[in-house]
Amino acid sequence: MGDHWQAQSPCTEWDARGVLEHVIGFHDVLLLRPLAAKPQRPKGDPVGRWAATFEALDQLLSRPGLFDRVVDVPAVGHNPPSQIDAARIVPMLSLDVLVHTWDLGRAAGREIILDPELCRTFLESLPSDDTALFRTGTYDSPRSIPATSGAQAKLLALLGRDPDWSP
Fold first, then answer.
1. What is the DSSP letter of 10?
2. Can you tell me whether residue 23 is helix, strand or coil?
């Protein structure tokens, strides 16, 4: 990202660094902290902060029986505190990383092509009601795009992003 950490992202309320801190925080709240795996991160070093998060996730995902566990999840968006199987949290976090990869790349002015198969897989797993995600309070309202758009554009639009956004 270089000097792009202060660049506006497609997420209207965040610059690039804000997006990264959101991704780190989401992993902390939903998985790392509840499972006693929150790492120590350097302050003022976005790349180092993500590297420490990635390392903690790598170690956590290697734990035997992880996907057989129930995780206590605090309130997120309009969702009250709950318990969720770890096997359901990991795909949610993976979607978050995938989409925010696009956000960060676009904030840096780069053209980002997400894996089409991942985009199709996530599209198929999302609610059929286009406004369901918006009502959670976690996503912006879906964007209208041509029906002939590819899986990446459809996924981004469903999650409230303009697939043609540029800085």
1. S
2. helix
